[in-house]
Amino acid sequence: MSFADHTIRVRVPGTSANCGPGFDAIGLACTVYNDLELTLKKEAGVKITISGEGAANIPCDGRNIVWRSVQYLLRKAGLLDQYPGAVIHMENNVPLSRGLGSSATAIVAGLKAANVLIGNRFNRRELLQFATDIEGHPDNVAPAIFGGFTVSTVTRGDVECFSFLPKFRMKLIVAVPDFPLSTRKARAVLPAQVPMADAVNNISRASMLVAALCKGNEKFLRNVFDDALHQPYRAKLIPGMYDVFAAARKAGALGANLSGAGPCLIAYALERRHCEEAVGEAMKAAFRQHDVEAKILIMDLDTRGAHIVK
């Protein structure tokens, strides 16, 4: 059966990794999306068009991460020689290099779309493994695939992921600063070793975070977003970071943390308290005190993950 010249459209949510203390382990999917249209071709060559976020900065040749992910999946299926070309159109709403999983979104979109076009030969667990192999860690690609909150582990290269939805409805308030920050630069400031007390701090809080979300016990969320493994070292890259956290909490948020490697900062609020607008304005004002302009995204938790758009 030939899958050439069939077009599929997939939608993938942006993500926020770490969620405070869950460094490289916990992630969530949020309601900002990138769409991808993919057509596989039997003729060599790739045509890539991009609209929206990052359109002027994303390569439209063989370096494009969507195309590389498509090729990765076709290689795994033994079909790379059969479909050496493609037509790709990307519609991006996830901010680029801001800590909302734009690269993970692209990887998952390429894998998901190619998999659908070849008859869904691989299940979601296999797609997670492929995406982690490409990205290097699962904390962003897992929620992009499964939606909701995810907890991931890697054992001798094999990825396992537990996905769940919290017992209460949350609002996610993201302050997007007007400057990018590459993951490579954000990782370069991290130490090779950390004190035992800092490791214990994160283990206890990450465990409490997952337990409180699963049980729906909001009172235990007040102190769980504090981190000692990456935020203290990355703070110098994001002016006013801790002041923005404090402003968000004062305005009614449960807590706030660095989104992924940054520079986006994300705050969490209970939907029933209707404080998300006030939290966003407080975060924006706190950033402005440090000469940083930021736009505010108020989102829900995405519950579907990557899916086909009819």
TrEMBL record:
One of its GO terms (biological process) is threonine biosynthetic process. This is Homoserine kinase. GO terms for cellular component: cytoplasm. Residues 221-285 form the GHMP kinase C-terminal domain. ATP binds at residues 95-105. NCBIfam families: PRK01212.1-4 (NF002288), thrB (TIGR00191). It is an enzyme of class 2 (transferase). InterPro entries: GHMP_kinase_C_dom, GHMP_kinase_C_sf, GHMP_kinase_N_dom, GHMP_knse_ATP-bd_CS, Homoserine_kinase, Ribosomal_Su5_D2-typ_SF, Ribsml_uS5_D2-typ_fold_subgr. Belongs to the GHMP kinase family. Homoserine kinase subfamily. It comes from Selenomonas caprae. Gene3D superfamilies: 3.30.230.10, GHMP kinase, C-terminal domain (3.30.70.890). GO terms for molecular function: ATP binding; homoserine kinase activity. Pathway: Amino-acid biosynthesis; L-threonine biosynthesis; L-threonine from L-aspartate: step 4/5. Keywords: Amino-acid biosynthesis, ATP-binding, Cytoplasm, Kinase, Nucleotide-binding, Threonine biosynthesis, Transferase.
